[in-house]
Design a protein that fits this description.
14% strand; alpha+beta; 41% helix
């Protein structure tokens, strides 16, 4: 894996802040002598739809979605874990959170962040379809 595209809700201040934070992290090695590059695309945008026409773009506004250069798609807690994995400082945390024993912790962290989205100000709550603060996805 050499590049990840992070689809995030550009209308959500919390999501924008996470994208800024992630963009500022030191990248981790990709295993081929380079680093894992990150690209950030507003979820649901014309650009996102053109890049990934097969994705459910309404769902990408509810849950952070990450697409790898090999076509792998990560959603929810898996997306958060892979985002941490590409950072030099937090890769070890991502490996721990990906273990079966720690996945419930990762899911709880994602749920906590989703719950905070309704307190981000602006008109976000008016645009939320009510599913952004529910517990996990059935396929996660």
């Amino acid at each position: 894996m050499r590049e990840l595209t992070v689809l995030y809700d550009a209308g959500c201040p919390l999501c924008r802040r996470f994208a800024q934070w992630l963009a500022g992290q030191r990248p981790a090695p990709d295993g081929y002598g380079g680093v894992v590059r990150l690209r950030f695309v507003a979820a649901g945008s014309a650009n996102a739809r053109a890049l990934y026409p097969a994705l459910d773009h309404a769902a990408t506004l509810r849950d952070i979605t990450v697409v790898a250069d090999d076509g792998s798609v990560y959603v929810g807690d898996r997306a958060w874990i892979v985002c941490l994995w590409v950072t030099g400082e937090h890769r070890h945390t991502a490996v721990r959170l990906a273990s079966p024993a720690m996945r419930p912790v990762a899911r709880a962290m994602v749920q906590a962040a989703a719950g905070l989205r309704r307190f981000t100000g602006g008109d976000y709550a008016d645009r939320c379809d009510g599913r952004c603060d529910r517990e996990g996805r059935a396929d996660a």
